[in-house]
Amino acid sequence: MYPSLEGKVVLITGGATGLGKAMAERFGAEKAKVVINYFNEEQEVQGIIETIEKAGGIASAIQGDVTKEEDIKGIIAHTIKTFDSLDVMINNAGIENEVPSEELTLEDWNKVISTNLTGQFLGCREAIDYMLENKIKGSIINMSSVHQEIPWPHFVHYAASKGGVKLMTETLALEFAPHGIRVNCIAPGAIDTPINAEKFSDPELKKGVLELIPMGYIGKPEEIAACAVWLASKEASYVTGLTLYADGGMTQYPGFQAGKG
């Protein structure tokens, strides 16, 4: 547990399912004040709020589309109005879809880039602006992916967006370090979330994924949430510009494991 997170105001975009849900519930368990942004999962959000409140935290929810500048501004405004501050901003909302690159439409490209990269930029910009104005030494966490490092055929738009998140994070970390604002990102590997449920329900597909993970198992959302609370806490007070890979070793060239190659 991280006592420094008690009472801190944490905003999580895409917080209704998967990694966002796990992070919201973990910050709630740390007795933080959690704002959950969601797109169209209103019923799911109510259950998360109840879980957080049972754990001793406080939570609020707000609908919004992270690709829209006015929605991001509204999400930030709701957070400040509700809890009088913003200490931790987690840009988690993201999407993906598989398309051979030669068939990828501009519409599909723009949709993924707008959500995964532009949406995160808008969240960073608005949070940083508030933190600067109010002299808050806050923490910003951007959700990336191992595919900021590992090429992924048929997902060129997704890989490009996550590569952008990496350098955006590093650039903002360098720019705002003098103000005490830390900017880091988490790059998960294969995690057992709803977006991966269909793939992991197929034994052959799951076996193929497991062969890429030296630790030999699919990660749990709670393991990513553990990374987030550490990065947001005082325990990571000297950490900025970091990509924290939580991938079971997937980025460590698993094909060379056991002396292969």
From TrEMBL:
> What GO terms are given for molecular function?
glucose 1-dehydrogenase [NAD(P)+] activity
Q: Which family does it belong to?
A: Belongs to the short-chain dehydrogenases/reductases (SDR) family.
- Provenance organism: Cytobacillus firmus
Q: Name one Pfam family in it.
A: adh_short_C2
Q: Do you know which InterPro entries this protein is assigned to?
A: NAD(P)-bd_dom_sf (IPR036291), Sc_DH/Rdtase_CS (IPR020904), SDR_fam (IPR002347)
Alphabetical list of NCBIfam families matching this protein:
PRK07231.1, PRK08936.1, PRK12826.1-2
What reaction(s) does this enzyme catalyze?
D-glucose + NAD(+) = D-glucono-1,5-lactone + NADH + H(+); D-glucose + NADP(+) = D-glucono-1,5-lactone + NADPH + H(+)
Q: What is this protein called?
A: glucose 1-dehydrogenase [NAD(P)(+)]
Q: What is its EC number?
A: 1.1.1.47
Question: Which enzyme class, named as a word?
Answer: oxidoreductase
Q: So which domain of life are we looking at?
A: Bacteria
PANTHER family in the cross-refs: OXIDOREDUCTASE, SHORT-CHAIN DEHYDROGENASE/REDUCTASE FAMILY (AFU_ORTHOLOGUE AFUA_5G02870) (PTHR43639), SHORT-CHAIN DEHYDROGENASE_REDUCTASE FAMILY PROTEIN (PTHR43639:SF1)
Keyword Oxidoreductase appears in the UniProt entry: yes
Keywords from the named record = Oxidoreductase
Q: Which CDD domains match?
A: GlcDH_SDR_c
Q: How does it assemble?
A: Homotetramer.
